[in-house]
């Protein structure tokens, strides 16, 4: 990956509640995630992992509480760049080529020289040869590569990954783990939700377990991280 | 400026994907053509009868075509959750609505323009002398259909019974647009053609009011 041009940024969740009707998806979640941390959220289906990540991406609004990005320089709030978001759904258009997808989102984000940025990212994710191919003809792994490239367009300091490795073959998971290692080593803050232990989860420096929308465990110790990942998803 | 440039980029995407799939235009054109041809053969209308019920039939066909055309607008964005990617990328969510409603209005207008000569031949009405005025009425009517149609397409895409939801929400709301468009079209196809400024003013007012409402509240329609 190219050398980063972002300011190291952490993320702060303050007393977050999220209700859908009368049902709580998140209940009084408060977390302080430092710049450069690689945090994995673990928990059963419906525990609130996806909701928390979508609130961090500002795709969902909390019913109460607040979320803010905090740079190392102490800046806080909306003016900081939007996080890069990769989910199980690829969030790219099947009817467009890989290059057209990146150009579309680069132009929407107001990125200078969108064609050059798209070309750089396609080379980095190994899709330079297939840049003119429609995404609908791609395998699941190739689509996720386009999704990663889309998320990196604005060089975000915070990357949010919502079960991104689901459905990938072992080579795909391996590539994905290498990519996330690259993000982590470049100083980006990573928040990801995963099911079970894998090459990807081994990169985490912190694990947070959610149950019924509440934080029930939070650890930075290697053995405890593995324990949370194996128990939370059992 | 960001709003307009984002809308222009998204409009380009809408036109490009439709040009590649030709999904919406083909479906609606075939549907609308079937209605017009079927009624023509069933009633074999005279010139005076065509002038009387032709405009109503035409706009009814446009309405059904629009409800077919509007449904996939936001539904297609759900396939790969591309709507989330758009929301993360644009500075003003209204840009998403603006691009989609302009695209919908263009598709509807293209369908209408293709159908108009066929309607004129089958129903023995003369349109050449009033063609520019007809285009104006069709433009204002199509925009009037596209604005609330796009808004309700966003709402219904998140609903459980989405196929049922859009027509149920949309059809009652579009009754005033249909009446105004039909009356303005009928006046232009009359023996002594007349451009009814009152109905045109009504259509323009409807468009402005709903566009403003969408601009003010559209963001909430996209929220989870």
Please bin the fraction of helical residues of chain B: over 70%
Total number of helices of chain B: 9
Radius of gyration of chain A: 17 Å
Number of domains of chain B: 1
* Largest beta-sheet details of chain B: none
The order of strands across the largest sheet of chain A is 5-6-7-3-8-9
CATH fold type of the largest domain in chain A: Rossmann fold
Q: Write down the CATH class of the largest domain in chain A.
A: Alpha Beta
Order of helices and strands of chain B: HHHHHHHHH
How big a fraction of the residues of chain B is strand? under 5%
Oligomeric form: heterodimer
DSSP strand (E) fraction of chain A? Answer: 25-35%
Q: What helical percentage do the residues of chain A reach? A: 25-40%
> Largest chain-chain contact?
A-B, 25 and 24 residues
Taking all residues together, what is the mean pLDDT of chain A?
87
SSE blueprint:
The complex is a heterodimer of chains A (234) and B (224).
Chain A: E1 9-20, E2 23-33, E3 38-42, H1 49-56, E4 64-71, E5 84-87, H2 98-108, H3 114-124, H4 140-151, E6 158-162, H5 170-185, E7 189-193, E8 206-211, E9 214-219, H6 222-232
Parallel strand pairs in A: 3-7, 3-8, 5-6, 6-7
Antiparallel strand pairs in A: 1-2, 1-4, 8-9
Chain B: H1 2-21, H2 23-43, H3 47-70, H4 72-75, H5 82-89, H6 94-122, H7 131-157, H8 162-189, H9 197-221
Helix pairs in contact in B: 1-6, 2-3, 2-6, 3-6, 3-7, 3-8, 6-7, 7-8, 7-9, 8-9
């Amino acid at each position: 990956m190219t050398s980063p041009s972002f300011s190291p940024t952490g993320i702060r969740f303050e007393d977050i509640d999220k209700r859908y009707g009368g049902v709580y998806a998140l209940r009084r979640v408060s977390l302080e995630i430092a710049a450069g941390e690689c945090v994995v959220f673990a928990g059963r289906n419906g525990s609130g992992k996806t909701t928390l990540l979508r609130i961090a991406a500002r795709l969902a609004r909390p019913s109460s509480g607040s979320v803010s990005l905090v740079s190392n320089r102490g800046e806080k709030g909306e003016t900081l760049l939007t996080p890069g978001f990769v989910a199980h759904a690829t969030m790219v258009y099947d009817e467009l080529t890989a290059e057209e997808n990146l150009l579309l989102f680069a132009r929407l984000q107001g990125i200078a020289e969108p064609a050059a940025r798209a070309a750089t990212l396609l080379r980095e994710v190994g899709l330079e040869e297939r840049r003119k191919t429609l995404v609908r003809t791609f395998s699941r792994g190739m689509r996720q590569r386009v999704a990663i490239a889309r998320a990196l367009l604005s060089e975000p300091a915070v990357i949010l990954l919502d079960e991104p490795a689901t459905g990938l073959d072992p080579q795909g998971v391996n590539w994905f783990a290498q990519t996330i290692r690259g993000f982590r080593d470049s100083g980006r803050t990573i928040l990801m939700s995963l099911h079970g232990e894998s090459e990807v989860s081994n990169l985490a420096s912190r694990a947070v377990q959610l149950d019924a929308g509440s934080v029930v465990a939070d650890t930075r110790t290697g053995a405890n991280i593995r324990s949370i990942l194996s128990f939370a998803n059992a | 400026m960001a709003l307009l440039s984002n809308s222009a980029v998204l409009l380009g995407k809408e036109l490009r994907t439709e040009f590649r799939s030709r999904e919406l235009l083909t479906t609606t054109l075939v549907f609308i053509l079937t209605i017009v041809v079927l009624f023509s053969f069933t009633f074999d209308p005279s010139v005076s009868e065509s002038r009387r019920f032709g405009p109503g039939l035409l706009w009814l066909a446009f309405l059904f075509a629009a409800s077919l055309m509007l449904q996939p607008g936001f539904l297609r964005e759900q396939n790969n959750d591309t709507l989330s990617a758009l929301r993360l990328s644009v500075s003003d969510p209204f840009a998403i609505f603006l691009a989609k409603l302009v695209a919908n209005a263009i598709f509807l207008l293209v369908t209408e323009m293709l159908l108009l000569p066929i309607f004129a031949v089958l129903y023995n009405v003369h349109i050449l002398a009033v063609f520019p005025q007809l285009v104006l009425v069709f433009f204002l009517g199509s925009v009037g259909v596209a604005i609330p149609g796009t808004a309700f397409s966003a709402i219904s895409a998140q609903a459980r019974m989405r196929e049922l939801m859009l027509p149920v929400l949309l059809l009652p709301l579009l009754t005033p647009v249909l009446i105004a468009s039909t009356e303005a079209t009928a006046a232009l196809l009359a023996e002594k053609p007349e451009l009814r400024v009152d109905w045109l003013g009504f259509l323009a007012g409807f468009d402005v009011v709903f566009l403003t409402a969408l601009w003010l509240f559209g963001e909430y329609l996209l929220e989870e």
